[in-house]
Amino acid sequence: xKVILLGEIKGKGGEGDVVDVAQGYAENYLFPKxxxxxxxxxxxxxxxxxxxxxxxxxxxRLADANALKDAIDxxxxxxxxxxxxxxxxxxxxxxxxxxxxxxAQLGVxxxxxxxxxxxxxxxxxxxxxxxxxxxxxxxxxxxLVGVEAEAEVEQTEAAxxxxxxTEAAxx
Length: 171
Prior knowledge:
alpha+beta; Ribosomal Protein L9, domain 1; Ribosomal Protein L9, domain 2; four-stranded mixed β-sheet; 44% helix; RNA-binding; Large ribosomal subunit protein bL9; Ribosomal_bL9_bac/chp; ribosomal protein
């Protein structure tokens, strides 16, 4: 069954695309959620009239996605997690935790569904994570897991040593 998409659907296409989908998928999912309309002669004629507006919105979306990519690509975020012996985490780091860390530390709102983690992170260290922003536009963010806690301990120890040395020198 041919339908006209009213928004972006991952794996199918973007707004204004005419795609062929299963009839049950169209009638039970796309039509009730207002994600698509049937590709009738009248709807196709209206689509031709709206192509200019759709192209303008698409250009804005691409520009926004590229700006977002520039803002987060190559940046590092830290996710707090309890680390046990040998760098193994108690629990795991999920895509929701990564999205929340990006939001909190970089000030960029990312939907958890856009974070392509594959499987949860269960080992401390630095992990590159791909964030799908729009269609083929992707950014890579380095996620530091358990690294900050170790660095804070080292900084605290170093500060304590400096304080002791300073007090000894003052006496």
